[in-house]
Amino acid sequence: MTTDTRTRPDDESIINVIRVLVLLQGGIAFVSMLEVAFTTAMTGGSTIFALLLTTVAALLTLRLSTGIGKLSRRARRITIRIEKVIVVIAFLEVLLALLLAQTLPAPVTLITRFVVPVVVITLLRRPLALEMFGVPSRPERKQRRLRRTRTVGATR
Amino acid sequence: MNPIAERVGEPLSRQAGDYVGSPLYRVIPEHAAAWLALGLLLLGVLILRRRTDTGRPSAIITGYRNLSADRRFLAWLIASSAALHLGLALGNTFDVYAVGFAIDSVLLFNIARRLILGRRWRRWAALVLLGSILGYVASSLGGVAPDQVSLVTKLVEVTALSLVLSPARPSRIRQLGASTAVVTLLTLVAIGSWVGAFSAGAGGHHLGDVPEPGVLLPIGEDREPTVAETRAADDLYAATVQAVSQWEDAAQAGKDGYAVEGITGREFHADNQAYIDDGAVLDPTRPESLIYAEGPRGPVLVGVLYQMSGIGNPGPAVGGPITVWHAHDNVCFALTPPALAGLVSPLGMCPVGSFAVPITNEMLHIWTVPGIPEPFGDLDDEWLDNYLAGL
Fold it and tell me: B199 exposed, middle or buried (CB, 10 Å; 0-12, 13-18, 19+)?
């Protein structure tokens, strides 16, 4: 019998969604690496540093998607930091496009550089995700900090 | 402004909407219906949800609410792709592509329905999604120009396929296989997109052409130049050839302020920052950039690039349709060290360490190599290779 679970809470498969989105980002970074390798070959190596950075980013992101699947706390933490950087740079590029060209970047750019990272950060911060990664929630962290301060105070 | 530049009037400014660019970074009008179809899908789901909430249950909504988070996401992805295909079928003229889009749409809607209702769906989903992605790659490699709707659809389908191929707790081998498949498909989509966009944009630098990715041309129709325009273009060409002969020796150009270090490839642009900043327009004695090719016995001066100062300032098209100025869009600029790092990928990314420049100032190439078939606009690479080989 099926049950109508309108207010169904998150289930554990949310990790699979995050993993796939990070894998998608890794795949896109891999494609970018191939593109900049082509540019580097055509321009006699003037973009070699961009090639190195993009290669590292692609490999790291693909590795992170595996880490997310394995519920690694480190992978979660690094992913959130990288996504934040991507969102900040994307935001600056949107501003640049509005200022210089009076137009928004193309829809695919907005999706891959803005929407996907924001969704990944949001999902990684949901209570169920925190629980699954073994990360204490914000009230718990606050309570722990408070307890620690009191203990230190009592010792003094 | 020098006398050559004063000969014609141009609009005072041009904005992004006054240019035509590659469809790769745009939504072509025939595909706009796809966004509408996507909106209608959302509206339809909202209506069904409301009906269910007010006591008239819908099997789709009830089934959807019983799905796990990843399957809900997958259902949305497949239904979105179906809606986008429906819009593409309705927006296109009746041809083989429209029929293909319509079939794809029906199949994808049916797979989304089966997934939601708990029937067998995985194998069908894998087949149809893979077929749709490979169909796109094949048509792009065949020369069909992709646009943003096509790319969004493929992105949605690759994401859906990666969920189809890897269930919530996959084995290590299955996960590796699924990841490899996703990366391979994204690579194929990107290669197909580049090939399609460049094949469709092979028109060059004439008004009314479909530009290559990264090139913006002013909106307008190509026409025959008038006698006065032909004469003005000839004058500009002769003045340019005469003035730049002093920089055939790259070392002399370097002494005069051009950045000639590391000349490589066919079209190495050596900028002169002082001339870029001087505000002079179309001055043959102070061209903003010289263009060198790597010849068998050292650098060969092949042409010049005149640039306007400031974005949106139209260049004076003294020779009418012969001297069409162009700008660039979606260019990636690396900061480490400062250099062009290519174009924004069809998947929306610039290389790490670079940022996307949405639009540049206008510019005009003049090729000064003796005997060049087209002295303005696009450089004929094959001709240049033969020329350099004969030096």
Answer: middle
